[in-house]
Amino acid sequence: MSHDCSFLTDVVPEDRVSFGDAARDSHAADWAADEAGTGVTPDAVVFPESTADVSAVLEAANDRGVPVTPYAAGTSLEGNAVPEYAGISLDMNRMNSVLAVRPDDFQIDVQPGVMGDEIDDAVASEGLFFPPLPSSGDISTIGGMIANDASGMQTVKYGEIADWVLELEAVLADGSVVEAGSKAVKTSSGYNLKDILIGSEGTLGVVTRATLELEGIPQQIRGGRAIFPTLDDAAEAVFDAVRSGVDVAKIELVDGISATMANDYLGTDLPDAPMVFLEFHANHGIGEEIDFCRSIFESHDVDRFEMADEEEMDELWQARRELAFALQTWDPERGPIHPGDITVPISKLPEVIRYAKDLGEEHDIVVPCFGHAGDGNVHYTAMVDRSDPDELAAGQEIYKKVVEKAIEMGGTCTGEHGVGRGKREYLELEHGADSVEAMRNLKRALDPRDTLNPGKIFPETATGERVQLEADDD
Amino acid sequence: MSHDCSFLTDVVPEDRVSFGDAARDSHAADWAADEAGTGVTPDAVVFPESTADVSAVLEAANDRGVPVTPYAAGTSLEGNAVPEYAGISLDMNRMNSVLAVRPDDFQIDVQPGVMGDEIDDAVASEGLFFPPLPSSGDISTIGGMIANDASGMQTVKYGEIADWVLELEAVLADGSVVEAGSKAVKTSSGYNLKDILIGSEGTLGVVTRATLELEGIPQQIRGGRAIFPTLDDAAEAVFDAVRSGVDVAKIELVDGISATMANDYLGTDLPDAPMVFLEFHANHGIGEEIDFCRSIFESHDVDRFEMADEEEMDELWQARRELAFALQTWDPERGPIHPGDITVPISKLPEVIRYAKDLGEEHDIVVPCFGHAGDGNVHYTAMVDRSDPDELAAGQEIYKKVVEKAIEMGGTCTGEHGVGRGKREYLELEHGADSVEAMRNLKRALDPRDTLNPGKIFPETATGERVQLEADDD
pLDDT for A256-307, tens place per residue? Predict the structure, then answer.
């Protein structure tokens, strides 16, 4: 599985290549570092500093049949960015400049290694912000977000990353450099290369520059929380609010056990009860909108509906953001089976949460549920003792059944973390054989030698063979 | 160029096939019926009534090397839907059912032949509407809008068609049926087949079902108009309003000559002056938003800024919608050279309009300009006497130069009408050779025999050869 990568120092300066164990080992797993998040150690790590570097590496690797797996922050959690077949890990973190801000056009040009919060920092003085950042915006790169079509807490109001990317520069497997999209806010010119690159998890191209759209910071921002007697009440309340058209910028569901875990991890004193965290954005009438939401929540037996000041809200959002870490440390004997997410049509949200919780009760396994509920998005896991094979198997069964239920409901096996290695087995169930074959044809068209991030997304790559590898001498 | 299509009655019932001159001739040109909008007469017209019909026709045609060009309302105006190489015109108008409305999820499932206004009619009783309809929504099908990634007056607030399509069923060139997208509002599962089909103008697949997202009808809707001393003031005012974040649902620019033409055509009494038509949508504070817009317009010397009642607004919007027809009939000796559009970053809007007008003055040719100015979109043409070769050439030169200017400004050669036949020559200028080659690779991947709508979008198809046609006996 290892590849001769000595050619790299011929195509880029030596200080951009590492063959050392430390660099290579640190690119073999993502933040999850579980079954899905652990790949194999690459043969070399390249740190390109320009589009020309990326192009040179890809052209040379493609000629030699050497896999190239783009890597950035490693926060996608499905193993999207770790090598399946060794070769080169292409670490994009040195390409981390903000290239231009055009406030008159609500646009910013960035390199892929720019962190999410750096985008907001670069445009705040213009009264602008980048709405679709994921919760991990301060530890994730924009290139990774684009590769995964990430989304976040504010997606319920503003949409996902794809909705805010106007134009991309990307390097294809053969080293050719394409421009996709337009700096005009709309276009119907040619095929939409931009949106086939977005979400392709580095299997079709490597983004080297992005023009993003921005939004004006709203004049009114208010946050709060609502506490419900049961998780079902909370889920029904979220559904009803969305169905009724409440204009909410964040609407996050956290179940009682997740709140307990957050308290233990952060020392907060959230009630150990199902909660909905809220944020409203408006230029006019935010009070009326909050009252509208309150009236809907009251019809679902809300115990408390409290608007909070900024400091209190910071604490709430921190608790929400760090839930993934809280899960890891809560029980010394039991850890989360996998940090996954699914998304369903909003009308199915209460049902899919009930389904997950019922499965947990049936197997006597804790199943924390939380997420961007206004999008129908649920993050969930199963807390298991990995040294107990029966418990591990039961946890895996629960995890799998919830994914299958989401697909059966017309939803998706992954709302925002991509397919990577972790969700490959569900691709055909969700999309059907003909659609997966069409996807594979697109991969063959843009990367016929399977150079870019081989082994990801498509199911049969799990067999250990690169999908479309041609002979090296063709 | 003609193809033997007698096989058709073997694959679909006879009442769904026509070889008659009337049917064939009516599918040879679109509404523009000019150079771009006139193709060749197809050998047969098929009126499929189901996905199975579409699949059977495509599979059989693909096997035989017979081109298939999907047709619906013919309102795209760049020749997108007319045959370049005869073969089959696939008329989608019989597949015109609303299949399901799911108000709780803000979703509707439709067949491709459903007209735009029928979508609004089907969901109005639920308090919902479909925001991105083009101005021609009452004479255009949703399938055509998807094929073109159309957009309209409300795109400035709500986005384009692509932003409101959740899931598609489409038949590929070989007859296989794919599902693309998800009924969940977000997904990062697999490649985005949906957005590569949207805007592909029937060259990659034929949409047979779409799940669309809907929006709640706003509680406050108010319209009005603003009259400016010069077109430059009007364009600068629109730019400033957008840059300042005015929350406007429609913001349409109409130049003085276009207003005159509308008056002549409709008998209205619009001032013969540069105007901006406006509509605001809100649930709270619409008055404040209108005042905000007014204050910005006043800083650009607006002569009058008037809110109108519903009846007055109906008249204004009718004038705006029918401008394309007004242009056709205004001058008995001169007609529009082509009904095209370009889109630029909003900061370039005033400059591109000045550029077009200056070119008109230089050549003493009337150049009407209007459009969805809040998106940086400009519809323009040149009024020429086609019997005068010099005037015709001058008009064509003006038309071409404005397209090139838009591209130079980082904009697009076509904001909403697609490439079709009319904009093929600009594809490479806009996207670059490597990007066009990547697009061509996608076409080869999904339609290797160039069965679907051959001759469109890509530049060299204008030479009279199908791009990727393989031998019939392979």
Answer: 999 999 999 999 999 999 999 999 999 999 999 999 999 999 999 999 999 9
Binned at pLDDT 50, 70 and 90, residue A325 comes out as: confident
The dihedral of CA A201, A204, A208, A213: what is its sign?
A: negative
Q: In this structure, are B163 and B233 located in the same domain?
A: no
Does residue A57 contact residue A13 with C-beta atoms inside 8 Å? no
Task: Give the total number of structural domains in chain A.
Answer: 5
Give me the CATH number covering residue A24: 3.30.43.10
DSSP state of B94: G
Which of B173, B198, B216 represents a domain boundary (last residue)? Answer: B216
- CA–CA dist B250, B281 (Å, integer): 9
pLDDT 10s digits, B54-88: 999 999 999 999 999 999 999 999 999 999 999 99
Can you tell me which residue has the tokens 């002549």? B264
* Position A462 pLDDT exceeds 80: no
Return d(Cα A200, Cα A147) in angstroms, integer: 6
Measured CA to CA, the distance from residue A253 to residue A326 in angstroms comes to 16
Domain range enclosing B437: 424-463
Q: Which residues on B lie below 8 Å from A170 (Cβ)?
A: none
Residue B212 lies in a domain: yes
* Chain A residues whose beta carbon lies within 8 Å of the beta carbon of residue B438: 172, 176, 178, 193, 446
Place of tokens 């609004």: B120
> Residues A165-169: what's their mean pLDDT?
98
Q: Which segments of A19-87 are extended strands (E)?
A: 44-46, 68-71
- Residue B30, pLDDT above cutoff 80: yes
pTM of the predicted model as reported, rounded to 2 decimal places: 0.96
Token readout for B360 is 């008109």
Same domain as A265, residue A352: no
Q: CATH number of the domain that A121 lies in?
A: 3.30.465.10
- pLDDT, one tens digit per residue, over A399-452 is 999 999 999 999 999 999 999 999 999 999 999 999 999 999 999 999 999 999
Residue B192 CA, chain-centre distance (Å), reads 22
CATH number of the domain where residue A245 is located: 3.30.70.2190
Residues 260-299 of B with CB under 8 A from A: 282-285, 288-289
Residue B287 is predicted with a pLDDT of 97
Helix residue ranges, H only, B181-283: 193-197, 231-243, 256-266
Burial class (CB in 10 A: 0-12, 13-18, 19+), B311: exposed
Q: Where are the alpha helices (DSSP H) in B174-330?
A: 193-197, 231-243, 256-266, 286-298, 310-321, 323-329
Domain assignment present for residue B471? The answer is no
**Sequence-ordered strand ranges (E) for A204-359:** 205-213, 215-216, 220-227, 250-254, 275-282, 304-308, 335-336, 340-343
pLDDT of residue B469: 44
ipTM of the shown complex: 0.96
- Asked which of B289, B307, B330 is the last residue of a domain, the reply is B330
Name which of A192, A436, A437 is nearest B198 (Cβ-Cβ).
A192
pLDDT tens digits, A47-79: 999 999 999 999 999 999 999 999 999 999 999
pLDDT for residue B155: 98
Q: What residues in B contact A239, CB-CB < 8 Å? A: 104
Q: What angle do CA A285, A287, A290 make, to 5 degrees?
A: 115
Asked whether the predicted pLDDT for residue B177 surpasses 90, the reply is: yes
- Tokens at B328, concatenated: 């056709």
Judged against a pLDDT cut of 70, whether residue B383 lies above it is answered with yes
CA distance A451 to A430: 26
pLDDT (0 to 100) of residue A463: 41
Give strand pairing partners of B115.
B141
Asked if A442 and B191 come within 8 Å (Cβ–Cβ), the reply is yes
Establish, for the pair of chains A and B, how many residue pairs have beta carbons separated by less than 8 Å.
Answer: 273
